Amino acid sequence: MSPLTVVTGGSRGIGAAICRRLGADGHDVVFSYRAAAARARETVEAVRACGVRCEAVPADVADEDGVDALFAAAASLGAVTGLVNNAGITGPVGRLVEVDVSEFPRLFAVNIGGVLLCCRRAAQVMAPGGAIVNLSSGAATLGGPFEYVHYAGTKAAVDAITIGLSKELGPDGIRVNAVAPGAIWTEIHADPDRPARVGAQTPLGRAGEASEIAGAVAWLLSEDASYTTGAILRVAGGR
Ligand code: NDP
């Protein structure tokens, strides 16, 4: 039987690369998106071209009803074996003293609440052998000064959730890990030059590609990582 993996935020960026990579690895994939329906259709077609099943669900991960709809769509295909909590936003960009705090509740609801809601639902339905991978960020340990202290805080929470849940769910045979990317070429950056600027400061001298994060996620979901849980895998060009 094929693995069946739920991915949040699969219409664009790293999430789309993860869906494509998992399809190539033989996973059936059910993913959520928020608004980008045309981009979601492109991901669905690319994944189905790998010969696996793929469905896209318009569902906000910050909303419990949306999470229920996502997992109901997955359940209609079979038993969920994997979850990738990829959906995330940066919130306002700038120094903490200057940013618009009215965006904070939404930031916390998506980046922290969404991860908790999806992990909770996955843990309720997964059998032993299941695996969860959360998208953290290098900012969780670097702190995101001058641009993203508030975002960095949400990603540090993702690290804590990952480590804590790995202990809660380990006895149930479910592994929980995180990937912490460095600067990756996607549309999440308000300044499109940011990946190049940050990437130039890494030992590898460049920003990363979404496919390079997808490879790490695929490994953590795979049997090759069967003794890995509670890990925060930094994929950041050495930064
Ligand atoms: P993008 O902005 O390129 O894509 C975000 C994806 O998440 C889209 O598919 C979007 O859907 C979806 N999404 C956003 N909010 C929600 C929501 N509330 N409910 C459901 N889906 C949602 O981001 P990236 O690919 O760059 O980032 C992916 C993850 O990686 C994030 O968690 C991010 O914090 C993390 N990360 C990224 C880094 C980078 O340099 N790119 C570095 C470190 C971490 P739609 O298209 O419909 O809007």
Shape: globular
Structural class: alpha/beta
- Major β-sheet, in short? 7 strands, parallel
Estimate the helix proportion, in percent: 40-55%
The largest beta-sheet arranges its strands as 3-2-1-4-5-6-7
**Total number of helices:** 8
Estimate the mean pLDDT confidence.
Answer: 97
Query: What is the CA-CA span between the terminal residues?
Result: 39 Å
- The sequence of SSEs as H and E is EHEHEHEHEHHEHHE
Summarize the model shown.
By secondary structure, this protein is an alpha/beta fold. The chain is built from eight helices and seven strands.
Written description of the protein model:
With 239 residues, the chain is α/β, with parallel strands linked by helices. Helix content is 42%, strand content 15%. A 7-stranded parallel beta sheet has the order 3-2-1-4-5-6-7, with helices on both faces. Strand 2, helix 2 and strand 3 form a beta-alpha-beta unit. Helix 1 packs across helix 8 and helix 4 runs parallel beside helix 6. The protein is globular and about 50 Å long. Bound molecules: NADPH dihydro-nicotinamide-adenine-dinucleotide phosphate (NDP). The site of NADPH dihydro-nicotinamide-adenine-dinucleotide phosphate has 30 residues, from helix 1 and strand 2. Pfam families: adh_short_C2. Keywords: Oxidoreductase. GO terms for molecular function: oxidoreductase activity, acting on CH-OH group of donors.
